[in-house]
């Protein structure tokens, strides 16, 4: 089943804002068997919106739009959708109540532009938005064959609405009698092709109601086992069998059995053991601390970090031996080990990770080219280290080294 | 002048990769008077590419595609483009030389798939790619009225090619006799609407060859003064006059006279004064250090950071007085000031920034709701502080507080 996404907003065409909504939608619907057919990004302009919607609804049973629903703009989008789906604007008391709640939460005064957001086309069904003032709107064509869902463009509102019911309503609307099952494994320490080889037999024997989806990111593979069938009992049995088979074959590489971000996995794992975490970062420059603290609740586990860009900070604040820096260089196993142990001791943490490397574009040598990174992970039972050769430019090296350092600690626990 | 962008790649439709190329292209061409008409994201599939290209080339004089040129995929894209623009594949020795140079730099062995990238349609002109193995290709319709440029999809290759000549070739091709001038001011401490009011008279009197573009980002406004005319001497005079007028009226708010990222502006400014920088981050969790160290050359200025998430780290590593944390709370002017001064002293830096706040979603109180952040900037002449109320969710609060802390230091220098 293919569907289409339309992203509405001048700010996207100007390059002022990067679209993350289409990815969010694609990832949310994929487990239910939906494939994104195409994505169109168009201006806040009646003709552009109408043309894109008409084109999409002609080709796809499901069209999702985001954006064009701000207090100053939503008349254009709503008017355009009414010109296609019919209806007229009517005041919706429930939407108005929601707007008042949102404004009260933000400590803001209602204004007339915002009140207008409670005017909703009579041709749509409202999906309440608990994350913002603009409701999502569910339209259907006269023959009921096609659905268009219009959502606001603010990313955390889009994500919230998808989670809050949009995805499940789509699943129910299009496949009311089908059972859908998913199981995600997070796998590391093996390449995608080697994993596929390992699972080749399992995959060949797979029942047609089941499907393996490989979702690789640098350092990690998410393997999702999708199941879809009208025979609920049979599907559950087949799906469980396939999962068991994966567990048996890939056991050594599985680090999680649900789809959570690596940072959350690490924080949860440490929280369960009552361990506190610190980081000592040279080439990653605070990126590990930043990625961890983007997760709310990080403060239960994460005590802090020392970003030791200068050698004096490695020595003074982390207690690395200056003679070792002189003898082995800052990018060395000895130094990264002392950084990890030093930060744990000095910040009072049970566990730590440390990085020291050459992110580039300058600073590489024949012995230690750009991308050379030593990472260390320290736990109460000891310290392990690993030498990485990270490909790509500066930001990719930083991100990959951050991921590998967190993975090393996760595997050491 | 409107143009169209086509982003090719299954990984984008799957939501595995976020498209940043379209924004890069839009921002690069905007100063030359080009507006993005629409962006289409399509699969690595012959029919999808052909349909999108045909549609775009019919409507726009310029079409730019990115992606679909990897070693395993480029036969599809090239074949599709030849079905539209004609020609056949021919070995291009200069492209092959470039591939060999790139592989040697990366220490990799050539393989046959990569050699195929040197096969180029005879109907295009090659624009050499010094950042990767796939060349950019410049096609024109038979009547020479329309141009399609096919570029590889790796973001730093796209950005490099745009900078390296694609943008200037487009400018020359479409407006050979026109002089184009730009001047960007970075402005802070004033809202966009107040700035527009301040500049209203200047803007009303503006010669038709000139145009003001306002490019706001949280905490900053970029004001670009674009000029375009066939009379070179006259345009230069008018453009200089408009810039003088902006300087006169908005002087108090201008912090830079060229378009550079805030982080680079701060690093350059500190480098010019031979100052070293440290950061002490609580709620921003290392994001300031991360943003600074994403810039190559940061190590000349940035010595390091202490991410003091736990109060014990604020006290032990930064020397904040525990009695003050108890009396005023960690999110207070007193504490953030001590953090800034403590990190400068302990890490041996001349300047520093510090942050302490409530990023949410938990931790807010009626007195200090989510988004309350104290920032401090320390220089050899003293320490200044500022109280922020940052809107939005956790990641927006973190990012806004990081920006404001850097701005506060920049203005204190």
Question: What this model shows, in words?
Answer:
The structure is a homodimer of 413-residue chains. In chain A, 42% of the residues lie in helices and 25% in strands. By secondary structure, chain A is an alpha/beta fold. In chain A, the strands form four sheets. In chain A, strands 2-1-3-8-7-6 form a six-stranded mixed sheet, sandwiched between helices. Chain A has a five-stranded mixed sheet with strand order 14-13-15-16-17, sandwiched between helices. In chain A, strands 10-11-9-12 form a four-stranded antiparallel sheet, covered by helices on one side. In chain A, α2 (21-29) runs parallel beside α7 (155-174), α3 (46-59) crosses α4 (74-85) and α11 runs parallel beside α16 (394-412). The first copy, chain A, is globular and about 80 Å long. The mean pLDDT of chain A is 94. Chains A and B meet through α2, β2, α12, β14 and α13 of A and α2, β2, α12, β14 and α13 of B. β2 of chain A pairs antiparallel with β2 (35-42) of chain B, so a sheet runs across the interface.
């Amino acid at each position: 089943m293919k569907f289409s996404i339309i992203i509405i907003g001048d700010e996207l065409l100007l390059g002022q804002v990067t679209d993350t909504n289409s990815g969010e939608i694609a990832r949310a619907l994929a487990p239910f068997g939906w494939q994104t057919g195409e994505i169109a990004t168009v201006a806040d302009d009646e003709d552009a919106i109408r043309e894109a919607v008409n084109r999409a609804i002609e080709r796809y049973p499901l069209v999702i739009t985001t954006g064009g629903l701000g207090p100053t703009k939503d008349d254009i989008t709503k008017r355009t959708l009414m010109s296609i789906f019919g209806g007229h604007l009517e005041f919706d008391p429930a939407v108005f109540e929601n707007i008042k709640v949102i404004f009260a939460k933000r400590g803001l005064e209602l204004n007339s532009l915002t009140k207008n957001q409670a005017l909703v086309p009579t041709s749509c069904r409202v999906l309440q938005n608990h994350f913002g003032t603009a409701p999502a709107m569910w339209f259907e064509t006269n023959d009921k064959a096609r659905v268009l869902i219009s959502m606001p463009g603010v990313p955390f509102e889009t994500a919230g609405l998808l989670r809050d019911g949009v995805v499940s309503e789509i699943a129910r609307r299009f496949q009311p009698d089908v059972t859908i099952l998913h199981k995600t494994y997070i796998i590391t320490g093996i390449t995608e092709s080697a994993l596929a080889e390992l699972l080749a037999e399992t995959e060949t024997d797979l029942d047609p109601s089941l499907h393996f989806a490989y979702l690789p990111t640098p350092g990690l593979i998410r393997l999702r086992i999708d199941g879809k069938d009208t025979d609920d009992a049979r599907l559950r049995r087949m799906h469980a069998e396939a999962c068991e088979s994966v567990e048996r074959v890939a056991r050594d590489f599985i680090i999680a059995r649900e789809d959570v971000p690596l940072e959350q996995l690490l924080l949860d794992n440490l929280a369960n053991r009552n361990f506190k975490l610190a980081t000592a970062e040279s080439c990653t420059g605070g990126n590990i601390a930043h990625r961890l603290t983007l997760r709310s609740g990080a403060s239960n586990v994460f005590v802090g970090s020392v970003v030791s860009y200068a050698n004096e900070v490695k020595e003074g604040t982390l207690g690395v031996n200056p003679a070792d820096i002189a003898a082995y260089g800052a990018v060395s196993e000895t130094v990264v080990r002392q950084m990890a142990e030093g930060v744990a001791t000095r910040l009072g943490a049970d566990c730590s990770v440390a990085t020291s490397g050459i992110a580039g574009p300058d600073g590489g040598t024949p012995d230690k080219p750009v991308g050379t990174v030593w990472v260390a992970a320290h736990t109460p039972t000891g310290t392990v280290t690993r030498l990485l050769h990270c490909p790509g430019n500066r930001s990719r090296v930083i991100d990959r080294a951050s991921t590998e350092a967190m993975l090393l600690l996760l595997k050491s626990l």
